[in-house]
């Protein structure tokens, strides 16, 4: 496993040292990170279209980061992936993430998002990356816990449409040799293993339909996030290291009563401050040979982001397991002798 790395989305701003790629890369390296996961929505940090066209440009961006002591680990297309499928209830909110030219035009916004996703496939290939992290978008999520009951066929039609939109994207990523690693996240139609499989089945088990493993979202849903690794380890191509806690009360539970983050029963925390079993997670991922990046995604209801970032790098470094190439009892090995083995089994 490689790391520690940090997802830059929660830190990018117009204030130094977060105002451009060289500055934020230097800041990340100063906290002990060796990798940065880069959002693709802000042209001030990278020009996605240019990155899709020019390997030289991608090499230049990697060079800028390496001068500061880090490398770019993956590209993030969370916002563009979100816009591949938007339920009308969310139109006004999500228009803000798209160019003004497509505001108020859902079809045009979808086409823009799909084009962005395909550009990111080419850009990821130019960077030499194996995966791009993203969201799936959602058509069905408003009907998650419905009253009155959903009409028969509504969820099936929603996922059929998701497959129609995503399969051509997966094909573009296959041509580029890159995986789409979905962060399974409430609010998206892909938020757990069952919903991931609903899309996966509809795209014929497409090899590029993969997972960005983030245990915080599973803890807040009260899922078995260690068993999830046992089930889906072959599809896990990226890893967001993020903590969370769930403290139900007599007044609220998983849905957290429309409260702000500080007052929710289910809330995100800085690494080590929540309830996620990271020893178990890093052990499971090592067991299954996960060899990509461990990337901090900082989101905390209480702690300042700078403190969370400073504490995150040593936390991840302390949990990364150097997988052994020897067995602890090799010193007692007696060699292999078939005659001796047969004798020990009482066969001679």
Structural features, described:
The protein has 348 residues and is of the alpha/beta class. It has a single domain (2-344), classed as Alpha-Beta Barrel (TIM Barrel). Helix content is 40%, strand content 14%. The chain is built from 13 helices and 10 strands. The strands form 2 sheets. Strands 1-2-3-4-5-6-7-10 form an 8-stranded parallel barrel, surrounded by 5 helices. It has a two-stranded antiparallel ribbon with strand order 8-9. The protein is globular. 42% of the residues are buried. The mean pLDDT is 97.
Helix and strand arrangement:
Elements: E1 2-7, H1 21-30, E2 35-39, H2 48-53, H3 55-68, E3 71-77, H4 78-82, H5 91-94, H6 106-127, E4 131-134, H7 154-176, E5 179-183, H8 193-202, E6 209-213, H9 215-220, H10 225-232, E7 236-241, E8 243-246, E9 266-269, H11 278-287, E10 293-296, H12 305-319, H13 338-344
Parallel strand pairs: 1-2, 1-10, 2-3, 3-4, 4-5, 5-6, 6-7, 7-10
Antiparallel strand pairs: 8-9
Could you please say which CATH topology applies here?
Answer: TIM Barrel
Quickly give the structural class.
alpha/beta
- What is the total domain count? 1
Number of strands: 10
Order of helices and strands: EHEHHEHHHEHEHEHHEEEHEHH
Assign the CATH superfamily: Divalent-metal-dependent TIM barrel enzymes
Query: In percent terms, what proportion of residues is strand?
Result: 5-15%
- For this entry, what is the oligomeric state of its chains? single chain
Q: Biggest sheet: strands side by side, in what order?
A: 1-2-3-4-5-6-7-10
**Cα radius of gyration in angstroms:** 22 Å
Largest sheet: 8 strands, parallel, barrel
Cα-to-Cα separation, first versus last residue: 47 Å
């Amino acid at each position: 496993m490689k790391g520690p790395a940090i997802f830059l989305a929660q830190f990018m701003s117009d204030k130094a040292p977060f105002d451009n790629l060289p500055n934020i890369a230097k800041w990340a390296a100063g906290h002990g990170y060796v990798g940065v996961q880069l959002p693709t929505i802000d042209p001030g940090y990278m020009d996605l279209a240019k990155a899709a066209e020019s390997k030289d440009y991608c090499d230049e961006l990697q060079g800028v980061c390496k001068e500061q002591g880090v490398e770019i680990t993956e590209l993030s297309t969370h916002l563009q992936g979100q816009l591949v499928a938007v339920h009308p209830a969310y139109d006004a909110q999500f228009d803000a993430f798209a160019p003004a030219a497509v505001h108020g035009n859902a079809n045009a916004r979808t086409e823009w998002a799909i084009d962005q996703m395909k550009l990111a496939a080419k850009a990821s290939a130019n960077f030499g990356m194996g995966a791009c992290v993203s969201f799936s978008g959602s058509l069905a999520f408003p009907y998650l816990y419905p009253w009155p009951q959903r009409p028969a066929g509504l969820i099936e039609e929603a996922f059929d449409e998701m497959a129609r939109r995503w399969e051509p994207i997966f094909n573009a990523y296959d041509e580029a040799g890159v995986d789409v690693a979905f962060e399974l996240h409430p609010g998206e139609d892909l938020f757990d293993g069952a919903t991931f499989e609903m899309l996966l089945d509809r795209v014929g088990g497409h090899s590029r339909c993969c997972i960005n493993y983030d245990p915080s979202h599973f803890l807040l849903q009260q899922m078995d996030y260690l068993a999830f690794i046992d089930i889906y380890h072959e599809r896990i191509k990226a890893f967001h290291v993020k903590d969370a806690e769930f403290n139900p009360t007599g007044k609220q539970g998983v849905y957290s009563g429309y409260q702000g983050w500080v007052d929710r029963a289910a809330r995100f925390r800085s690494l080590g401050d929540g309830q996620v079993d990271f020893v178990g997670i890093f052990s499971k991922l090592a067991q299954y040979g996960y060899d990509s990046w461990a990337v901090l995604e900082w989101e905390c209801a209480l702690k300042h982001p700078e403190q969370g970032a400073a504490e995150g790098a040593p936390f991840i470094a302390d949990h990364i397991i150097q997988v052994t190439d020897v067995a602890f009892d090799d010193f007692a090995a007696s060699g292999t002798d078939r005659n001796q083995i047969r004798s020990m089994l009482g066969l001679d």
